[in-house]
Amino acid sequence: MRSIPEPAEFRAEARNWLAGVAKERAAHRDWGRGDDSVAVFENWTEAEERAHTDLIRRWERTRYDQGWGALDWPSEYGGRELPAHYEQLYQAEEAAFDVPRRTEVFPVTRRLVAPAVRVWGTDEQKRRWLRPMLRTDELACQLFSETEAGSDLAGVRTRAVREGDGWVVRGHKVWTSGARVATWGVAVCRTDPDAPRHAGITVLLVRMDAPGVTVRPIRQMTGGSSFNEVYLDDVHVPDTDRLGPVGEGWRVTLTVLAAERLDSGGLGLDNAERALDLARHLPRPLTGAERQQAADLYVRGLVQRLTGLRVTAALAAGREPGAEASVGKLHATATMRATTDLVQQLLGPRLAADTGEWGTFAWTEHLLGAPGYRIAGGSDEIQRNILAERVLRLPREPKGNGS
C-alpha cells in the first residue's frame, strides 16, 4: 500500500503541480474585465456545449494521466488509494487556478455514476466502464426524472421489458443535463409493474446513440437549453448493460442519489463571492441594509464551507455522511437565494436592462437559474423530510387526515 502524505504535504504537492499546468486565477484587481458570466445553468448552443465539453475533457484527461484525477480510487483504476477527503483538499487548491469550469455531466460521470458501477457492477462492467469514465473518455448522464413522477422517483413509468438477451425500453425522461454529449444514460426503469413500487425497478445503462434514443433540448427561462428531454422508443439494451440485480434498482438509485447530495454542498459559493465583489466595487457607499445583507451572505458562505468540512470529516473517519449532506444541500440553495437578494438590492434597475455594462445584466442568469436548484439533486422538501425522519425521528404525517 502506498504511503499517505500528510494533508499539508499533499496540498503543497497539488499546488506545485497545478502551477506547472495552469495559470493562477486573476485576483480582485481584475474586476470589470474578462468574462462576467454568473450562469447557474449554461446557456450554450449544442455546438458550444460540445466545444466546451472537449475543452473540459482535455483538462480531466491531463489530471487523470498525471495522477490527480482518481485520488481515492484503487491503483487498478488509475487511482492513488488516498482517503476520500483528499479530493476536497485537491479541489481547494485547484480553485486558485484558471482551469475549465466543469459542466454537470463531468461530476455526474466521475462522482456519481462511476462509484455506483464500482459498488453494483460486475467484474466485466468494472473493467469496461470505470477507467473510461474516470478519465472522461466516456461521459454519463442521469435518466431519472419524469414529468409524471416529479420528485417521487419511485413513481417512474418508463418500462423495460425482457426480450431475448436484453431489454426493450419505452419511456420519456426530463431535466437531463449533458444528454447531448453523454455516451451513456443511467436509466431508472420499471420492470415489474405488479411489484411494490420500490421493488419493481431495474437500472440500465443506455447508449445515448442507440436507435430509438431522441434528445430534445428544453428551452429555459435564461434563454439557454442545458437541460434536455430524452425519448426512449423501443430501445434495445443488452442485459450486460444492466447495473445491479433485476428488481433491485431502487438500491442502485440510492447509491447515486447519496453521492449527488454529497457533491452539492459547494453550490453557489463562486457566485456568492462574486456578489460580495460587486458590493466592494459598487460606485457608491452601501446603505446600512446593504451592508447587513452583504455581511449575512459572507457568513452564509463561511457556514456552507464549514458544513462541507463536516462532510470531509465524516469521509476521513470512514463513515458515509448522512445529515451533513442534506444540511449542506439546503444551505447551498439558501445561499443562492441570499446572493440573488443582495444583487437585486445593489443593482436595482441596472439588473433588468441589458446596457452592455460589465457585471450587471449578466446577473439575470443567476436570478433565473438559481431557483432550479431547489429541485435539482433532491428538492428542498425531500431534504427536510430526510432530516425529519432519519435525524429527528419524527413520525410520518398520516395520509388522508384532511389537514
Largest sheet: 4 strands, mixed
Structural class: alpha+beta
User: Largest beta sheet: what is the strand line-up?
Assistant: 3-6-7-10
| Shape, per Cα inertia axes | globular
Instruction: Note the beta-strand portion.
Output: 5-15%
What is the average per-residue confidence, as pLDDT, rounded to a whole number?
A: 88
Helix content: 40-55%
In terms of quaternary structure, the protein is single chain
- SSE run: HEHHEHHEEEEEEEEHHHHHH
Annotation field: number of helices: 11
Please provide the count of β strands.
10
Radius of gyration in whole Å, from Cα? 22 Å
- Uncertain spans: none
Give the N-terminus to C-terminus distance in angstroms.
Answer: 59 Å
